[in-house]
Design a protein that fits this description.
2 copies of one chain form a homodimer. The first copy, chain A, has helices at residues 8-15, 19-25, 34-47, 53-59, 76-91, 107-117, 132-140, 164-177, 193-208, 223-235, 248-262, 295-307; strands spanning 65-70, 95-100, 122-125, 144-148, 158-162, 183-187, 213-217, 242-245, 271-276, 289-292, 317-320, 323-325. In chain A, 50% of the residues are buried. The first copy, chain A, has 12 helices and 12 strands. Strand 2 (95-100) of chain A pairs antiparallel with strand 2 (95-100) of chain B, so a sheet runs across the interface. The structure holds a DNA duplex (16 and 16 nucleotides). Chains A, B: Pfam families: LacI, Peripla_BP_3.
DNA sequence: CTGAAAGCGCTTACAG
DNA sequence: CTGAAAGCGCTTACAG
C-alpha cells in the first residue's frame, strides 16, 4: 500500500487475480465471473479499498463531478435550491462541487475554468452569465451545461426557466382584483434576468390596464432593502395599498417596515405579494402570499437532463410553472 | 487535442518545448527560465489550456478538494456556515465538494468514503459522527479531518468547538437577572452535541441556583417545532415568563406561537433567548436576543488549520467564543 | 472469462 | 535550466 492508500494492485494481489479483474469487479456490466468478483470484493472489503475516482476519471469520459456555480449561497431561496440539487445529484450517483461566484464580475468565468480543471461532467450555473467563448470551451471539453433562470441562451446548453413574466402579470391581476387602488412595485438593483422579468410582467399588465404604478428599486436583494423600500413607500403622502415585491426577502422587509414603523395593517391597509415562497413566508408573523418556486422540480429537471441520454433532438429548454401560494397578506375583495 | 480537451502535450508542441516545461510553467517555484515560462503561458492562453487537476492529483499528494459533509443544508445557520467555508476555501485556492448527509444513519460514513474516492485533501464534518475505524482510514490516506461542534474526539483530527455549555449557563443567568420567575427550556429531539451542551449548561445553572425549570423537547430542530413547543408552553396554567431555546429557529417559532396564538407580549410577558443569531433573529418582527455563532471565525479557523503546516505539536482543538447579541426579546429588569 | 499491455495527463527525480 | 523517462492508479481494447 503506497502513500495514496490501498490500490487495485494491492487488492489484486490479495485476491490472487489481475489488476484488470479488480477493475472489472467495480464496473457494472463488465465481463467477469461471479466467482472472481466475489473474491475481489472480499479482498477489497478487508483492505478497505475504494476505487480512485481521479484515476478513473482520467480514463473514462466522466468523473461523476458536477459543478454548482452560485452566488449568495446563504440566502433562503438559493440554499434551498442548492440543497435540492446536491441531494438529487447524489441520488443519481454524482457528487457536487460547490463554487461560490460571489466575488468579482469574472467569478463565473473563473468558476467555469475551475470546473474544466477538474473535468466535471457538467456545470450548473445559478448566478451570472459566462461568455459564449467560455461556454463553448466547456462544451468542447465534453462538459454539459445547465443554466437556471438565465435569460440568454447558449448553444448546446440546457435552460431551465420559470415564467417570471407571467407571474408579474398575475401579481398585478391579483392585487387589482383585491381592490387595491394605488399599486407599487418593489425590486432591487441586482438586475438579474428573473427579477427583471417579474418587474416587466407587472409593468405590462399595469400598462395594459391603464394603471399608473409606483416603482422602487434599490440596493441588493435583501430584507434590509425591503425595509428601506417599505419605509419610503409608506412615507409617501398617498400611500400604496398594494405592493408586489420581486422577492420574498424584499416583501418581508416591506411588511416589517410598514407594520412596525408606520402601524400599517396587513392586509387591511396594505396587500403584499412576494416571490420564491421561502420558509419564512409561511411563518405566522408574515403569512405572505407569494409565488412558489418549485425547487424540487427544478432540481429534478436538471439532474434528469444531466443523467439522460440527451438525444440531439430533445428540446434544450424547460419551463417550470410557478404557482401562487395563497396566504393572508392580500386582502379579500369586499363583496358589494 | 484529444477528447479530454487541450493537454500539456498540445501546449508543449505549440510552444516548442517539452511536456515537462509546460508542467513547470504551472508549478510555482519550479526551476524554469522566465523566458520559457512566458512562451508556455502564451501558448496555453491561445489554446485555452487548463491543467488537469485530476491527473495532477494522481501524482502530487494533494488534489485541492475539500469535502464538506453536512445535513440540513438549507437551514439558515447551516447555509451561512457552508457559504463562509466555501468562500474561505476558495480564497485559499481549494475547492469545496459538497456532500449531503441527510439521508440515512450511515450517510456520514458514505460521505467519507466518497471523499476518499476523490482523494480529497480533507473532510470537514458538520453533522453526524463517523466511526473511529473510518476516520483512521481517512487519516491513513493522508486526509485531514476537521470536526465542527462534535463532542467526541478523533485522534489526529482537528476539533472546532463553541462553548455551548457556558452559553446555556449565561442564558439562565440572563433570564434570572431579567427577573423571570418561571423558566423554561425548549429544545428538539435531534440530540446533537451542541444542543445537548446548551441544554446541560442551562440545567446546571438552574440546579445551582435551586430553580425548577420546565423542559420541552420534541421533533426536529425547526420553526414548526418551536411553534408547537410555544403552544404547549403557553397552554400551561402557570405560563413561563422566560424561555431559552437551544436554536433560533425554535425561538422564532415559540415567539410566533406565544404572540399570535395567545396574545402574549414579548418581552413584557415573556422573555426569549435563542442561539445562532441567524439573519431572521434581527428582523424587526422578532428582534431576538440570541447567542451569535461566529460563522466567519469558524471558517477561518478551519481553513487556517487545513492550509497550515499542522506541526504535530500544535493543539488539535480550538474553542471559539460565543457572544450574547442583546436585542429586545428579553425584558429589562425593573428598577426597584 | 481472463491477463498482459498500452495509455489517460500529469509530475518529478535523473542526467546533462 | 532543460528534456527523456518512469510512474501515479486506473480502464480497455487485444489476444487467448
Amino acid at each position: 500500500m503506497g502513500r495514496g492508500g490501498v490500490s487495485a494492485k494491492d487488492v489484486a494481489k490479495a485476491a490472487g487475480v489481475s489488476r484488470a479483474a479488480v477493475s472489472r469487479a467495480f464496473t457494472p456490466g463488465a465481463s467477469i465471473s461471479a466467482e472472481t468478483r466475489k473474491k475481489v470484493m472480499k479482498a477489497a472489503d478487508t483492505l478497505g479499498y475504494q476505487v480512485n475516482h481521479l484515476a478513473r476519471g482520467l480514463i473514462r469520459s466522466e468523473t461523476g463531478i458536477v459543478a454548482l456555480i452560485a452566488a449568495e449561497l446563504a440566502t433562503p431561496y438559493r440554499s434551498a435550491l442548492l440543497a435540492a440539487l446536491s441531494e438529487r445529484l447524489q441520488e443519481a450517483g454524482k457528487v457536487a462541487m460547490l463554487i461560490n461566484s460571489d466575488r468579482s464580475d469574472d467569478s463565473v468565468e473563473r468558476a467555469l475554468r475551475q470546473a474544466i480543471s477538474y473535468r466535471t461532467d457538467a456545470a450548473v450555473v445559478l448566478s451570472g452569465m459566462p461568455k459564449t467563448e467560455l461556454t463553448e470551451t466547456c462544451l468542447k471539453n465534453g462538459m454539459r451545461l445547465v443554466l437556471i433562470n438565465r435569460d440568454e441562451y447558449r448553444e448546446g446548453s440546457y435552460l431551465i426557466r420559470l415564467d417570471d413574466r407571467a407571474a408579474g402579470r398575475t401579481a398585478f391581476a391579483t392585487l387589482a382584483a383585491a381592490g387595491c387602488r394605488r399599486l407599487a412595485l418593489a425590486t432591487s438593483q441586482a438586475g438579474t434576468p428573473s427579477l427583471s422579468a417579474r418587474r416587466d410582467g407587472f409593468r405590462d399588465a399595469a400598462a395594459a390596464a391603464g394603471v399608473e404604478i409606483v416603482e422602487e428599486a434599490t440596493g441588493p436583494t435583501s430584507y434590509e432593502t425591503g425595509l428601506s423600500i417599505g419605509t419610503r413607500l409608506m412615507s409617501q403622502t398617498d400611500r400604496p395599498d398594494g405592493v408586489f415585491c420581486t422577492t420574498d426577502l424584499l416583501a418581508l422587509g416591506v411588511m416589517d417596515a410598514a407594520r412596525h414603523r408606520f402601524g400599517v395593517r396587513i392586509p387591511e391597509d396594505l396587500s403584499v405579494i412576494g416571490f420564491d415562497d421561502v420558509p419564512q413566508a409561511s411563518w405566522e408573523s408574515y403569512d405572505l402570499t407569494t409565488f412558489s418556486q418549485p425547487v424540487g422540480e427544478i432540481a429534478d429537471a436538471c439532474v434528469d437532463w444531466l443523467t439522460g441520454d440527451a438525444m440531439s433532438g430533445d428540446p434544450l429548454q424547460t419551463s417550470i410553472p410557478v404557482q401562487l401560494a395563497w396566504r393572508g397578506s392580500v386582502r379579500k375583495n369586499q363583496p358589494f
